[in-house]
Specification:
The complex is a heterotrimer. Chain A is α/β, with parallel strands linked by helices. Chain A has 2 domains: 16-131 and 293-335, Periplasmic binding protein-like II (D-Maltodextrin-Binding Protein, domain 2, 3-Layer(aba) Sandwich), CATH 3.40.190.10; 134-290 and 361-403, Periplasmic binding protein-like II (D-Maltodextrin-Binding Protein, domain 2, 3-Layer(aba) Sandwich). Helices cover 48% and strands 14% of the residues of chain A. Chain A has 18 helices and 13 strands. In chain A, strand 1, helix 2 and strand 2 (51-56) form a beta-alpha-beta unit. The radius of gyration of chain A is 22 Å and the shape is globular. Chain B is an all-alpha fold. Chain B folds into 2 domains: 6-65, no CATH class; 70-277, MetI-like fold, CATH 1.10.3720.10. In chain B, helix 3 (60-70) packs across helix 13, helix 10 (199-214) crosses helix 14 (269-277) and helix 12 runs antiparallel to helix 13 (247-267). Chain B is flat and about 75 Å long. Chain C has helices spanning 3-38, 65-73, 75-90, 94-105, 112-120, 127-138, 144-151, 166-191, 195-203, 208-219, 221-237, 240-245, 257-267, 271-303, and strands at 41-43, 59-61. Chain C has a two-stranded antiparallel ribbon. By secondary structure, chain C is mainly alpha-helical. The chains are: A alpha/beta, B mainly alpha, C mainly alpha. Chains in contact: A-B, A-C, B-C. Chains B and C meet through helix 1, helix 4, helix 5, helix 6 and helix 7 of B and helix 1, helix 4, helix 5, helix 6 and helix 8 of C.
Chain lengths: 406, 283, 304
């Protein structure tokens, strides 16, 4: 019995010794975990005086867990996302101002391109570690077999879908169980039809969900839904489940982020794959792309702020920054990092450099509460398109509750 | 005997009955068998969509070692033990004291206290969630083993006190009266007379409580965040995130998470059933 | 005689009960009251150090507003409430199935003891694992259900992605431990059935269903009562399976009050609103608590 008690005391003691740095991470997938572990190991090597403790969370579960732990017992560093998702916590005073890290580690220079998405009222509240393009990853072999070319505009895109469908290939794979993949489709359709500014006004809650300008967005979406171009039963699948049909050659296209590439490599189909930019829909609308930025933050409740700042500042280390980003299929926000060599990343970097505007992503640009409700609506629309009016009315009510009357 | 013993029927019926019994059992256990089979498949087998055939090539050992090596399964498993065992002992101790008192002492508020324990036992967790989380944060036990242990002891004490009070009430009161006449103190009576007599009940409750606490998911989700504290139920989420489509590893992890209560059940089945059905015969 | 010796019969109950009562008051009774109090406020849960109320801008009295919004302006609340009712009614199906299986295996043949334990043991498997297994079972691409349907030439049914089926899909997963539990209760009940009454029934020509209905079931009443209470309490608490299997989806159609409460309080930081949902859940449960206590005290009285 005595032994048992000693054991319990030993394990239950959470006395955190000075020099212990607690990092909460959502990098749960096999390749992203390996990429993050590499960064942590590099940091350990450079700062042997700091003991790094990493708590791992499943990527989806983390979105709720962070809300719990930030207000209860915060870690010293938390991985999160730029844009409105970060601002939500900044507004609640849950993230610390880290402008000094930016200044001291020279990030104002090396991370200039992503600085805006981490700035609130002129102060920086986090440090980015990677960003990536979204676009259409497709089976080049299937396209070649059917003599299909990369579609440049909406008519061509629908034609390609029709041809694939005719040949018993699922044109578009998608798994909407965790909703955000549907957000990607909405983003692109709306950006290509109504443009960047309108889209940003919508995410900021300044436009009604019943606004007639959105009619065209939903109508274009229906042009893909009604003929059955999306993977059947997609609401049953996670984004990982939806990879299988494409890997097995049963589905041709996948609108997803570049973090998909490590999976394609390990599944051995990467040579059959290629990438294209989401096609133009309305001529003359500026080309905007989704390029979400993933970040690190120091919670207000952090106990070891000093070492946490070292951990963030370590992003100025060119090699560590390069490794973390590239191993996870991302681009490094550090402009001194090695240029990507992976062809998908090269294409992505070029595409983003040429884009007129960059959006974060639906659930990072919109208020979290609203983003969740909206993506549920998008998922429902993709399965039951006839409910469009009802869904939009519901979203508008939700918008009015969160953002107030227009 | 009801239904009529099968032995009273013809041989044909007997054979049919046994075949049907095996068939029913097979259907009943199908999901579990599938998981166990999958937990020893190779990843190639899983990718090819073979779930229902017996695996030609087994990866039993490599899958299970992968579960413990790649993830933090060992840590989560240990956390579950650290949370569960003290909770079981603590609950049994407090509720046997309370149960003895409620059964054998006459005082004004006896029934009221008893009712409080029973009522608390049926309360939906959600009504406790916000305040318990705040209390834990304020006492500095949020995200610690001890925080979960204290809460579980408190909540489970309701059920266990109810159970033990009824059990002790069945014991002959004369025993206690005789001891009191001999000048034994109340604590001596509890320790020397009551405790030895309620060992079967404690064993039954112990295995039951072990299962309840081991299987807790909700409170672990609300009251923990670190890998050094998370029990295996929540830890399994982490592993699912890591292995996403590697169903063989997810299955192996699930088997490990489910195992301790199952083993306990098979070893202590009699106590277990006694604990579960107490009050079902007379109530 | 010392003070202790003279008064120990009066003091002992207090000392014996104090630890249990104290811890129970802190962690169960006070939280119930506090939750109800919080439900009359708007609060985002942001202040840890007991500053709640002292002019804290995050904490304000709103009276019954949370309840009014719930009942008049929140469709999701009705979806959750309706799902809770479905859980309540349909999870009771586990009870007759458990009884049937109990009757089916209540024979003394070689090895029956082991067969029975194989029927029972799913009860001890945790909900997370059951959820993982059944999510996989329902997977329309490679799940067992799809396989079975294909044997009959039928198309896959995406149970967990269909707003009308998903809740039933989860309830069926809950049957697995539920049926095992009621089986255990009934088998124990059956061993206690009065043999003479069964024999008398046989002489009167009763058999099969008549015997079950008129002779056996009345004697199994205590087991049935416990099964009903435990099933109902469990169905109102349903959270784990939903969190693991659908996370409330598709589009919120499988949410129940317990899940919605968790989401509103921890994800949306609407603690007051979440507390109001919890209070409603608590009031529903109170009906059963009151009924259970009433029965218990009636029994206590009749024993005296």
């Amino acid at each position: 019995m005595k032994k048992l008690i000693t054991l319990i005391v030993l394990f239950t003691s959470t006395v955190v010794s000075a020099g212990t740095l607690v990092v909460n991470s959502n990098q749960s997938g096999e390749s992203s975990k390996a990429a993050f572990d590499a960064y942590v190991d590099a940091f350990r090597a450079a700062h042997p005086e700091v003991t790094v403790v990493v708590n791992e969370f499943e990527h989806e579960a983390y979105k709720t867990a962070i809300r719990n732990f930030l207000t209860a017992e915060a870690p010293d560093v938390a991985i999160w996302f730029a844009g409105n998702r970060m601002k939500f916590f900044v507004d609640q005073n849950l993230f610390q101002d880290v402008s000094d890290v930016w200044a001291d580690a020279g990030l104002n220079d090396s991370m200039a391109s992503t600085k805006g998405s981490l700035t609130v009222d002129g102060k920086q509240y986090g440090v980015p570690w990677g960003y990536y393009q979204w676009g259409v990853y497709y089976r080049k072999d299937l396209f070649d077999n059917l003599g299909l070319n990369v579609p440049k505009n909406w008519e061509e895109f629908k034609w390609v879908c029709a041809m694939l469908k005719k040949n018993d290939i699922t044109p578009i794979t998608i798994g909407t169980k965790f909703l955000w993949t549907a957000g990607g489709w909405f983003d692109y359709l709306n950006l290509r039809i109504n443009g960047y500014q309108f889209h940003m006004d919508l995410t900021a809650g300044k436009v009604s969900y019943e606004d007639p300008r959105l009619d065209a967005t939903f109508a274009a979406w229906r042009e893909l839904i009604d003929p059955g171009y999306f993977l059947e039963d997609h609401a049953s699948f996670s984004w990982q489940d939806a990879q299988a049909p494409q890997i097995n050659g049963e589905a041709a296209m996948y609108l997803i982020g570049n973090f998909y590439v490590p999976t394609l490599e390990s599944a051995g189909v990467v040579d059959k794959m290629d990438f294209f930019q989401f096609p133009t829909i309305v001529e003359g609308v500026g080309i905007a792309e989704d390029a979400p930025t993933d970040t690190m933050h120091i919670p207000s409740g952090a106990k070891n702020v000093e070492d946490a700042k070292k951990f963030l500042a370590f992003m100025s280390n060119k090699e560590a920054a390069t490794n973390w980003a590239t191993m996870g299929g991302m681009l490094s926000p550090n402009k001194y990092a090695d240029k990507p060599t992976n062809r998908f990343s090269v294409m992505g970097a070029e595409m983003l450099a040429a884009a007129d505007d960059i959006a974060q992503f639906w659930d990072r640009d919109a208020n979290p509460d609203m983003a969740g409700a909206a993506m549920e609506g998008f998922q429902e629309f993709m399965v039951k398109p006839d409910r469009e009016a009802k869904i939009r009315a519901r979203l508008e009510k939700e918008r009015a509750r969160i953002h107030g009357d227009l | 005997m009801f239904p009529t013993p099968i032995q009273n029927y013809s041989l044909k019926v007997n054979i049919a009955y046994r075949l049907l019994l095996i068939f029913t059992l097979a259907v009943w256990l199908l999901p579990l068998v599938a998981v166990m089979l999958t937990s020893m498949r190779t990843f190639e087998d899983v990718l090819a969509g073979n779930y229902w055939t017996f695996p030609e090539e087994t990866a039993l050992i490599s899958n299970y070692t992968a579960v413990f090596e790649g993830g933090k399964m060992g840590r989560f498993f240990l956390n579950s033990l650290i949370i569960t065992l003290p909770t079981v002992f603590g609950t049994l101790f407090l509720s046997s004291l309370a149960g003895y008192s409620l059964a054998m002492h006459r005082f004004k508020l006896n029934l009221l206290v008893f009712a409080m324990f029973i009522a608390g036992n049926f309360v939906p967790y959600q009504i406790l969630m916000i305040p318990v989380r705040n209390i834990s944060i304020e006492m500095g036990v949020y995200n610690t083993h001890i925080g979960l242990i204290i809460f579980h002891i408190a909540f489970q004490t309701g059920f266990c006190t109810f159970f033990l009070r009824n059990f002790i009430k069945e014991l002959p009161f004369e025993l206690i009266e005789a001891a009191r006449a001999d000048g034994a103190t109340e604590f001596t009576i509890y320790r020397k007379i009551i405790l030895p007599l309620i060992i079967p009940a404690l064993a039954a409750l112990g295995v039951l409580e072990f299962t309840f606490i081991w299987n807790d998911y909700f409170w672990a989700l609300v009251l923990t965040q670190g890998d050094t504290v998370k029990p295996i139920t929540v830890g399994l989420d982490v592993l699912r995130g890591q292995w996403t489509t590697s169903w063989n590893l997810v299955s192996a992890g699930s088997v490990v998470a489910a195992l301790p209560p199952v083993i306990m059940f098979f070893i202590l089945q009699k106590q277990f059933i006694h604990g579960l059905t107490f009050g079902a015969v007379k109530g | 005689m010392t003070f202790w010796e003279r008064n120990q019969l009066k003091l002992a109950p207090f000392l014996f009960l104090a630890p249990a009562i104290l811890i129970f008051l802190i962690y169960v009774i006070y939280p119930i009251i506090d939750s109800i109090w919080v439900s009359f406020h708007e609060w985002n849960g942001m202040d840890k150090n007991g500053t709640r109320g002292n002019g804290n801008p995050n904490w304000s009295w709103v009276g019954l507003k949370n309840y009014v919004v719930l009942f008049t302006d929140d469709e999701e609340f009705y979806v959750s409430l309706f799902n809770n009712i479905r859980w309540l009614l349909f999870s009771l199906i586990a009870i007759p199935i458990g009884l049937l299986l109990a009757l089916f295996v209540n024979q003394s043949i070689l090895g029956m003891r082991y067969i029975k334990s194989l029927f029972y043991f799913p009860f001890v498997i945790n909900a997370v694992v059951i959820g993982v297994i059944f999510t996989w079972f329902y997977n329309p691409k490679y799940g067992a259900l799809t396989y079975v349907l294909s044997l009959f030439g039928l198309d896959p049914i995406p149970v967990l992605a269909d707003e009308n089926l998903a809740t039933y899909g989860i309830i069926i997963a809950s049957f697995f431990p539920g049926i095992a539990y009621t089986m255990i209760l009934y088998i124990t009940g059956l061993t206690g059935v009065n043999r003479e009454m069964v024999e008398a029934g046989r002489i009167d020509g009763a058999s099969g269903f008549t015997m079950l209905w008129h002779v056996i079931l009345p004697q199994l009443k205590p087991a049935t009562l416990i099964a009903v209470v435990v099933t109902i309490v469990g169905s109102l608490r349903s959270f784990d399976l939903i969190a693991v299997m659908t996370a409330g989806g598709p589009w919120g159609s499988t949410e129940v009050l317990a899940y919605k409460m968790y989401q509103e309080s921890l994800f949306n930081y609407r603690m007051g609103y979440g507390a109001a949902i919890a209070t409603i859940l608590f009031l529903i449960m109170d009906i059963y608590i009151a009924w259970f206590l009433y029965r218990l005290f009636k029994n206590e009285k009749s024993e005296k």
